[in-house]
Amino acid sequence: MTGRGMSGAILDSGRQLMLSRAVLAEFASKGTPKQASFLLEFFTAELASREENKRARLLKKARFPAPKSFETFDWSHVRLPESLSRQDLTGCAFLPRCENMVFFGGVGTGKTHLATAIGSAACGLAMETRFFTASELILTLARAKAEGRLDKVLSDIGKADLVIIDEWGYVPVDTEGARLLFQVIADSYERRSLLLTTNLEFSRWGSVLTDDQMAAAMIDRLVHHGHMVIFEGESYRIRHALMRN
Asked: What are the start-end ranges of the E strands in the chain?
């Protein structure tokens, strides 16, 4: 077989194979050191390629509004509780514990940036993430309910290790929207982590959600295994606005 023909045969075989342990053991043991080294290099490259492809798929599925990283984030205006370290956030250590995060602070203080960076890091660790604004999530769930697909959509959200709900409380929510949001929070309780960004104190949730009891039930589930992260300072966009002067 010619070199070109052999290359084609290798490609065709590789696309079809799910390698068995017995065959791997046989060829790993009888090959020369140089051949074994080549085989190990091949498997290492293949595994790295699969991991990168999986990360790309998870990032696409998460639907972040824009790429963000820890490297470009300013931590100087963030106040963490004693129960939480910066490494808990950057290393996503809170996710296996199904702990929640509420990022509280004014508009433009970096809440969405840090939430997106954490979600991206989770994808890099092969953890599924979903990103929604609160209004987008309500519209998605309401549309699914109207079309008889609500269970399917909730099931898809339920596959995530982390659900990020951005801009919580920025716009008023009607009773039906509040019920749909509560369903996501209730379904996630002790099963996955929720991360909410908001500029709204807990005491005002009832007025925005039009139901004090439902708001109290949401808060109860969020804070049981949750941490409040405070964002202080002036809006980043205002500080760097072209119209500032």
From this structure: 78-79, 100-105, 129-133, 162-168, 193-198, 226-231
